[in-house]
Amino acid sequence: MPLLAALLGTLTQGALAGASGSDGCPGEVLANGICLGSTWPPIEPHTHRFPDPPYINNPPNTINLIGRQLFIDDFLIDASRTSTVVTTFHAATYRDDINPVLRPDKTWEGADNISTAFASPFSGGMWWDAAANEYKLFYRCGSPKAMQCLAISRDGLTFTKPEFDVVPGTNVVQPEFIDGSTVWLDTDPATPPERRFAMAAVFAAQHYSAYSILYSPDGVHWTLALNRTGPIEDRSSVFLNPMRSPRKWIFSIKSGPKGFGRSRSYWESDELDTGAQWTDECSDVVCNATTAAKAWTNADVYDPAWGCGAENYTQLYNLDAVAYESIIVGLFSLFTGKYCASGAGFNRTGEWDSVFLGFSRDGFHWTRPVVNGAHQVFLPMDAHVVHGENWRWNKANVQSVGGGFTVQRDDPLRFYVGARTGADQLTGNATAGVAELRRDGFASVSVSTGATHGVLVTRPVEFSGTHLFVNGDNVDKIKVAILDAVTATALPQLGIDDYAGVVGSTTSGTLLELRWAGGPNALNHAVNKSVRVQFSFQDDSAQLFSFWFAPSTCGASSGWLGAGGIGYNSSRDTMGQC
Fold it and tell me: Are 183 and 211 in contact (CB under 8 A)?
């Protein structure tokens, strides 16, 4: 079949993803109502101009609301009924009052040669282990031989390096020479205790050409389960997509299709150590063989221009991802320069890598926000590049961690990165730092500039909770109504005129309950029905980050919690503020 005809057929199949509900869906239907289509994963080509995910323009007839609902794309919004509001995207803020939170200060980390010393996740993993009541940070350690080490923290900000018995006198937990690894804490109650921690390691013994899969009950003592998966290139990673049924392990495989350079291919399996035998990592623009990984994603025209070096175009160095509330958050490490001589005016001779964001509702297609014609950096390299002055900890090679970020109750989201600095301008010594973002703070909705009022109306949605919560600022300046999905008229006791406002005196926060005059039972008129939610902004001081419907005044969202955090005892929010 000619390539054009094959691609047209592929795009037709892909357009089915997002089709309404279970009726007529030829494939798996997600909990949010998105239909994955008859061919999954879809066979789609690499491109420098990605279309919107199919579920944006072809959504379910009714969107099922589970977890906090974030305004990171247009999936929830009925554009025809929404006016004079704008979405603003936000970046994380480095905690440079304490960064780096991890540095190579042990002999086995190479502390005797600060130019090449290494104590930095690559992806590694950062997890809240509720069973041990501690955070665990898995990171690449050592120079010239890189191993896997484990640091411990009670608060996520101050770390210790306990001595374990794997390599006595050190915090090494995996002594084999690695390029990198992803470590995942699997809190599913059905997971055997000896497999609580999973590691997809890229070992030198495999010539960085395959993952090796290991499991551990405690993150310290590891057992090899699979020596060699299908083929990969060196900087490959994995993540768990729990929104599928059954849940899926996603292999984020480094590939290099012509014209795109470092890119990502996709493979999924029910278990990490079985079903991982693809035959081709897909280094072509499109791969349609059943046994081959599928072309997935890459840098695009909205990414920053190449800075300097021989490769000439921006590339996708790595993609980590994690489930958060109702979405998958992707952490795109973009490669924009390499080994630039200081005399050229750049003075940043390591690899130029910063982290950008993407968001997915089906686990495959991404929305990467474009602001003023470009993707905005989320976790940047240090902008300070003055020759002759000291470099900061994140001079170059800023990379995300496995697990993505932690979620503390009543505290910001915390993002951990590996980065490089030091006397050696080529590679530098490697450390780890932390950045923070408001809970749900990726994007907010407010009144458009110059306007005094605005209205946001959702597409038809369905929910089961009887308590409405929001995350926002000055939410006393927002009025809410629940509308019939077809007629767009207010349901009994749930109109704008019935609206009573915020419960309590606090009007800005990450967990605020809203009510109507009919009290907590008013939402019974809307439960398990196809409705629309209308937010009416009364002035430009109000900001809305998210909303959700909870079963009680505790405000538990039932959404996913990234890498977890203090105050949570599972991977989903079953607690809220209680």
Answer: no
Q: Measure Cα distances from 33 to 222, 241, 490, 527 in Å.
A: 39, 16, 24, 17
Asked if residues 257 and 298 have their Cβ atoms less than 8 Å apart, the reply is: yes
Rounded Cα–Cα distance for residues 445 and 453 (Å):
12
Nearest Cα to Cα of residue 201 among 216, 179, 218, 184:
179
- Amino acid letter, 565: G
Alpha-carbon Rg of the chain, whole angstroms?
24
H or E, element range at 28: none
Residue type, 367: T
Q: How does pLDDT run across 334-387, given as a tens digit for each residue?
A: 998 876 655 444 455 578 899 999 999 999 999 999 999 999 999 999 876 554
Question: What length does the chain have?
Answer: 578
Question: Could you please report the per-residue DSSP string of 553-571?
Answer: TT-----EETT--TT--SS
- Positive or negative: CA dihedral 546, 550, 556, 559: negative
CA distance 158 to 102: 8
Record the tokens describing residue 129, joined without a space: 């282990």
Which position has the token pair 């042990």? 106
Task: For residue 111, count CB atoms less than 10 angstroms from its CB and return exposed for 0-12, middle for 13-18, buried for 19 or more.
Answer: middle
